[in-house]
Each structure stands twice: as structure tokens, then as C-alpha cells.
Amino acid sequence: MQKKYLLIYEEIAQQIREGHFHPKTILPSENEFADRYQTSRETIRKALNLLAQNGFIQKIRGKGSLVLDLKRHQFPISGLISFKELAKNMGGKTKTTVDGFVLEQAGTDIAKELNIVNEELVWKVKRVRHIDEERVILDKDFIVEKQVPGLSRQKCQNSIFEYIEQELKKQISFAKKEFTVEEPNEEDRELLDMEGFHAIVIVKNYIYFADATLFQYTESRHRPDKFRFVDFARRMDSQKK
Predict the structure, then answer these.
(1) pLDDT of 87-134, one tens digit each?
(2) Is the sign of the CA dihedral 43, 48, 52, 54 positive or negative?
(3) Is residue 241 scored above 50 in pLDDT?
(4) Per its UniProt record, what SMART domains does this chain match (predicted)?
(5) Which of 72, 106, 190, 231 is most exposed, with the fewest beta carbons within 10 Å of its own?
(6) What gap in Å lies between CA 125 and CA 145, rounded to an integer?
């Protein structure tokens, strides 16, 4: 016999799929669900945890369980795509604002990430991505100036990748990515609409030209409710033997 929390999970998940609980609304409380299903709060808590793990809800401290939009924008893990390219497929209103733009010496920490000397000049760019009039992504870009000369605030607001490929005629080839989930810091809360959210998805990108030259390090900080990070994996033939 299937455990009760699994049955409750499946029923609530189906109700979310069918639109009974709308995106951006708060689910009934644990007590309300416990009364409705004639069970304990612990059983309800297990069902809600499973809903959160499978992307149906986001638990918000002090508010409850926020229903997520199952049509959230897909962000390809293995792909290398600019926000401008991603925005074309989103359908909603998008905008980029440049909060910081400066050319200065890399410094110890950034030099280490880019594998350059501390004194080398680096473009340091801070961009906020708006989706449906909400500030949901903070991109912090560090770009080696000698590899990408002539960058400007306007080009950053439009698309850095587009400038590199169309104006500098350089081929962007691949990236190494690292994913972590952390608590938002003071800068996240200042520049993003983080009210009620107590986690942020951080994607670190190390981006290379076709000749394997590392030219950009980006720390992209995402509010967790707007995106699904997706990938396609294939089992290697050698593992089947």
C-alpha cells in the first residue's frame, strides 16, 4: 500500500498541474491540509517537502508554500547562451540594466579565476536582468580587456556575446560551469527582488574562445522561482558493457 504522504503529494501535484492552485499563490497551511486529509502535520510536511524537491512549490519562511509556475523558463545547463538569446523565447517582458561598469586591475581573487596576473586590466560589469518587471538575475562579469577590447556600457546592456561575435569576429566556443545554492547576500537583496526568498542559485561560468583561451568569468545569481535548469544526458556505450 502506498504511503499516505505520497498519495497526498500526488493529489496536490495534480491539482497544481490542472490549475486548481495558481502560480504565485500560497498553498493552504500544514494545519489546513492536515484537517483536510485527516492526518498529521508531519505527513503533510513530508508531502510538501516532496513537492518542493520536484519543483512544484517554493517554501518561503514566514509565508508558507508558494506555488511555482510549471512553465518556468528553461535555462540549459550544457548550453552556452546569452540572456538576450534566452529572452527571445521567454514571451514576457525582459530588460537589462547595467549597475556597474569599470575597467581596472583584476586583483587577487579575479586574477585567480581568470588565470591572469593581478595587474592585468579587466572589464568589471554588473548587470541586473528584469523579467516581467521583476529583478531576478544578477550577472557579475569579469572580462580580460586585451581579449575583448572596446567594450562599453551600451554594448553590455545589449549583449556582450553579440559584440564579441559580430563586431570583434571572435568565436566563443565552450564554458565550464559550477552550480551552488546559497543564502542571498546583502548585494542580492539590494539589487534583486528577493522579498520572501531565502535561497539563490549561483552559476559560475568560465568562458573560452575556440583556441581554449579563457577570457571571461561570470557569476550569475538567480532567484530560484523563475528558472528550471535543464540538461540532456546520454549513457556512454562503454558503461553498458
Answers:
(1) 665 556 889 999 999 999 999 999 999 999 999 999 999 999 998 888
(2) positive
(3) no
(4) HTH_GNTR (SM00345), UTRA (SM00866)
(5) 231
(6) 12
Which residues 6+ apart lie within 8 Å of 226 measured at CB? 72, 73, 131, 134, 136, 137
User: What amino acid occupies position 10?
Assistant: E
Cell matching residue 146: 586585451
Please name the helix (run of DSSP H) or strand (run of DSSP E) that holds residue 158, with its range, or none. Answer: helix 153-158
Burial of 145 (C-beta count, 10 Å sphere; 0-12/13-18/19+):
middle
CA angle 64, 11, 20 (to 5 degrees): 65
Domain residue spans in the chain? 4-67, 73-230
State the Cα–Cα distance between residues 220 and 201, nearest whole angstrom: 8
CB-CB neighbours of 73 under 10 Å: 17
Amino acid at 185: N
Give the integer Cα–Cα distance in Å for 45 and 57.
Answer: 12
CATH 1.10.10.10 at 4-67, yes or no: yes
Q: Which three cell numbers stand for residue 141?
A: 562579469
First to last CA, the chain: 36
- Report how far apart, in Å, the C-alpha atoms of 237 and of each of 35, 133, 153, 197, 231 are: 51, 46, 47, 42, 19
Which are the contacts of 208, defined by CB distance < 8 A and separation ≥ 6? 172, 173, 174, 175, 176, 214, 215
Q: What is the pLDDT of residues 139-164, one digit of tens each?
A: 999 999 999 999 999 999 999 999 99
Cell of 142: 569579469
